[in-house]
Amino acid sequence: MTASLDLNADLAEGFGIWALTDDDALLDVVTSANVACGFHAGDPATMRRVCARAVERGVRVGAQVSYRDLAGFGRRFVDADPDELTADLLYQVGALREFARAAGGEVAYLKPHGALYNAVVHHDAQARAVVAAARAAGLPVLGLPGSRLLARAAEAGVATHAEAFGDRGYTPEGTLVPRREPGALLPDADAVVERARRLADDGVIVAVDGTAIPTEAASLCLHGDTPGAVDTARRVARALRDAGVTLAPFA
Fold first, then answer.
1. CA gap 190, 187 in Å, rounded
2. Total domains present in the chain
């Protein structure tokens, strides 16, 4: 059984007057915040506010970096030149780092967002580009077990942390079901809670076809932009604590 587990969520996913996530409510639940850095979502005022409130609550701040794709919310693959991609990612980390420091905190890790996250599961050149950014920034990476990202990071001497997803469908191969396909999201909060319990108790994620996938994860991601996200996150946190799991940032 898992003794300790991090809960992370994607926050600051808004722009100007638009907001997709209830950042304040989720910061009362999660132990790590993946803060959008302006390329798929997140404007300076939002980034600053979320960093300040995360630090106030003792929530770890991570840089959620993305392709330059505001219009597509970072969910469209971009065939980016690796050197340019590395520069874009470092730019995002640098911006977030200043907001975190101004709040009395630090950026503690790097996590790709959306299409970039899915690309670096298999795309070697882009995985290397993300690793180059993380290494230059002196940050560990958070990613999918078995991905090229984590493999290339380990080869480069960059610390890695594996995560699982509480509300996303998995293929039998252990990758995420594309969002446009059936089964991309779990159907309801009960299913998400059961996913978290099974991961904590047995170290297993159940794929859309029923395959049990052994999974070692330091962190569990709960998306903040899905209906009922806050209530679901609260239920997951309560269920894990009731099962004897300590909720804490990954080491």
1. 8
2. 1
DSSP strand pairing (32-36 vs 60-65): parallel
Phi/psi for 116 (5° steps) reads -65, -40
Q: What confidence tens digit (pLDDT) does each residue in 200-228 have?
A: 999 999 999 999 999 999 999 999 888 89
Residue whose structure tokens are 């059984």: 1
Q: Please list, in sequence order, all residues whose beta carbon lies within 8 angstroms of the beta carbon of residue 195, skipping any fewer than 6 positions away.
A: 166, 167, 186, 205, 206
Question: Quick one: pLDDT at residue 2?
Answer: 81
* pTM for the full predicted model: 0.96
Average pLDDT, integer, range 139-168 = 98
Residue type, 27: L
Residue 92 DSSP code: H
Encoded tokens for 64: 């959620």
- Average pLDDT score over residue span 89-114: 98
* 89 vs 162: CA distance, rounded Å: 20
Q: Which residue range forms the structural domain that includes residue 24?
A: 4-247
CATH, residue 15: 3.20.20.370
Q: What residues contact 25, with CB distance under 8 A and at least 6 apart?
A: 230
Q: Which residues contact 52 (CB under 8 A, 6 or more apart)?
A: 99, 102, 103
Digit-coded pLDDT (tens) for 53-70: 999 999 999 999 999 999
